[in-house]
Design a protein that fits this description.
flat, quinone binding, transport, NADH dehydrogenase (ubiquinone) activity
């Protein structure tokens, strides 16, 4: 039982060493950096443009929908790579092919749904 908990002790010790190293690096950075705050340095940085007006800006929901669609396609691509590697293995050909077409069918249904709801229209 001691060697079971001993492996956890090693992990905890490595975690503590990691915390000390990161904390020490942050502390050394804070001690060694110059600190000369000026009003120009303390203003909000907005892509090189001086901030004008108040901080409230309204964004449209469609931008988030495009982000979600991108995530769906990225997940789709992540699943295609392992499928392509196992497809050539003996005994997995037809099963893998059917499973991937079921997966692509679900993706196609999601795209069709988004297209029918006019989510994919930019204007």
């Amino acid at each position: 039982m001691d060697e079971y908990f001993g492996s956890y002790a090693v992990v905890a010790a490595l975690f503590a060493v990691g915390l000390v190293v990161v904390g020490g690096a942050l502390f050394a950075n804070r001690m060694l950096r110059p600190s000369r705050p000026t009003p120009e340095k303390l203003t909000t940085y907005e892509c090189g443009v001086d901030p004008v007006g108040d901080g409230w800006a309204q964004s449209q929901v469609r931008y988030y929908v495009f982000t979600y669609l991108y995530v769906v396609f990225a997940v789709d691509a992540v699943f295609l790579f392992p499928w392509a590697t196992i497809f050539a293995a003996p005994g997995f050909g037809m099963t893998t092919l059917v499973e991937m077409f079921v997966f692509l069918g679900f993706i196609a249904l999601g795209i069709l749904y988004a297209w029918r709801k006019r989510v994919l229209a930019w204007t």
